[in-house]
Write a structure and sequence with these properties.
The protein is α/β, with parallel strands linked by helices. 50% of the residues lie in helices and 14% in strands. It has three domains: 109 residues, no CATH class; 125 residues, no CATH class; 84 residues, Arc Repressor Mutant, subunit A. It is globular and about 65 Å long. Keywords: DNA-binding, Transcription, Transcription regulation.
C-alpha cells in the first residue's frame, strides 16, 4: 500500500474477540518497510528535524544509494498501491530472512501484483522482467536493495531500536493499564478505536476483516502521517504505524533541563519516559551500564523515578514529579521547525 496525505477515505479494521487476543506489537522495525519509507523521506522538502543528520549523510552516499533508490522508487511509487511482495512478513526476522522470502515470491503473484501497480503507475521495462521471474533481474534487485539497506538503514539500527523500545514501553503500559481496548485507543488521535472497529484516514475506502487472525502492529522510524497496511487481505494482517519522534527527543536543545540535571542525566530521564530497563537505557543513551546505574541512582534519590526489579531485569519508571518535570520542559521548549532534507 502507500502513504498519502489529504485523503477523505477510511480504512476500517474489524476485530473479533479472538483478534483482540492475538493482536501484538512487533519488537523491532521491519527493514523492508523502513527502506520503502526512508526513500520517500530523502525527497521531502519538510523532512522532520530528527531525520536531518541522516538525510545529510545519505546525500554524501548518493552514488552508492542510486541503484536502491531507483529500485524502490519503481516498486513503491506514490499513489494508492505498491506490491506487497516488496514488504514480506518475514522481514520481522531481519533483512536476510525477508530478502529470501522476496526472492522466493511465486511468479504468479509477482505478475499479479505488478499488473495491479501498472493500473495506477508507470512500470519500467525492467520491473516487468521482475514480474516474469527472470533470475538476472531478481539478482540485480537483491543487489540494489542490499546496498541501500546496508548504507541507509543498517547504520541506524541502534537509534531505531531505541525509539521502538520507547514506543513499545508506552504501548505495554497502555495494555497493562487497560487491556487491548486502551492499547488500541492509545494510537489516537489519527487512529480511532470504536470497538470493534479500528479506523483511520486512508488513500482508498477499505474494510479489512481480521477473522480471528489478529493484527500485527509494526512501529516504523521512517513512516509519517498515517499507518499503512498490506493491500492483500489474504496476507497476515499488518499495520505499520509511525513512531512519535517528538515524544523522544535527545536532549540537544533542552538547555534548562540539562542545566538542572546535567546533559547525560537529562537524556536518561527522557529515555525513561514510558519505562525502561537499565540495559535499554544504556543502549538508548549510548553509555555503559555502570554509568546508567549512577545516573538512575541520583534521579531516584531526587524523587524523579522509581526502580523495580522484574525477574533478572531492573525496570525504571517516572514518578509523577518526573513526569511533571518532563512535561513542563517540553511545553517551555519551542517546537522545532521543519527543515529541508
Amino acid at each position: 500500500m502507500a502513504e498519502h496525505l489529504g485523503v477523505d477515505s477510511v480504512l476500517r479494521i474489524h476485530f473479533t474477540t479472538a483478534d483482540l487476543v492475538r493482536t501484538r506489537v512487533a519488537a523491532a522495525a521491519d527493514p523492508f518497510w523502513e527502506m520503502v519509507f526512508s526513500r520517500r523521506r530523502l525527497f521531502e522538502q519538510d523532512a522532520p528535524l530528527v531525520l536531518r543528520p541522516w538525510a545529510e549523510r545519505m546525500q554524501a552516499d548518493a552514488a552508492v544509494l542510486r541503484p536502491g533508490i531507483g529500485a524502490l522508487g519503481a516498486l513503491s511509487p506514490a499513489g494508492p498501491y505498491f506490491p506487497d511482495f516488496l514488504t514480506p512478513s518475514e522481514g520481522v526476522d531481519g533483512f536476510d530472512a525477508g530478502m529470501e522470502a522476496l526472492l522466493s515470491t511465486p511468479r504468479k503473484r509477482l505478475d499479479a501484483e505488478i499488473a495491479r501497480m501498472a493500473v495506477h503507475s508507470q512500470v519500467p521495462a525492467w520491473v516487468r522482467r521482475v514480474a516474469d521471474g527472470e533470475p538476472e533481474m531478481l539478482a540485480s534487485l537483491e543487489k540494489a536493495l542490499r546496498s541501500y539497506h546496508d548504507t541507509a538503514i543498517k547504520p541506524l539500527e541502534t537509534q531505531v531500536q531505541s525509539r521502538v523500545d520507547a514506543d513499545r514501553a508506552r504501548r505495554g503500559r497502555d495494555l497493562l493499564d487497560g487491556g487491548t481496548d486502551q492499547l488500541l485507543a492509545g494510537f489516537g488521535p489519527m487512529i480511532r478505536w470504536h470497538a470493534p472497529v479500528l479506523q483511520m484516514p486512508y488513500p482508498v475506502d477499505r474494510d479489512l476483516y481480521l477473522e480471528g487472525r489478529g493484527l500485527r502492529l509494526v512501529p516504523s522510524f521512517f513512516c509519517r502521517w498515517q499507518p499503512v497496511a498490506l493491500a492483500d487481505p489474504r496476507l497476515p494482517p499488518t499495520l505499520v504505524y509511525p513512531i512519535d519522534h517528538e515524544s523522544h527527543w535527545e536532549i540537544t536543545g533542552d538547555k534548562s533541563l540539562a542545566d538542572l540535571l546535567g546533559n547525560t542525566r537529562a537524556t536518561v530521564l527522557h529515555s525513561i519516559d514510558g519505562g525502561a530497563t537499565t540495559t535499554e537505557l544504556a543502549r538508548r543513551v549510548a553509555t555503559s551500564l555502570a554509568s546508567v546505574s549512577r545516573h538512575t541512582t541520583v534521579l531516584r534519590e531526587a524523587g524523579l523515578i522509581e526502580t523495580h526489579r522484574r525477574g533478572a531485569a531492573v525496570l525504571h519508571t517516572l514518578t509523577p514529579l518526573g513526569e511533571s518535570l518532563l512535561s513542563n520542559a517540553r511545553r517551555a521548549r519551542p517546537r522545532p521547525s521543519l527543515l529541508t532534507a
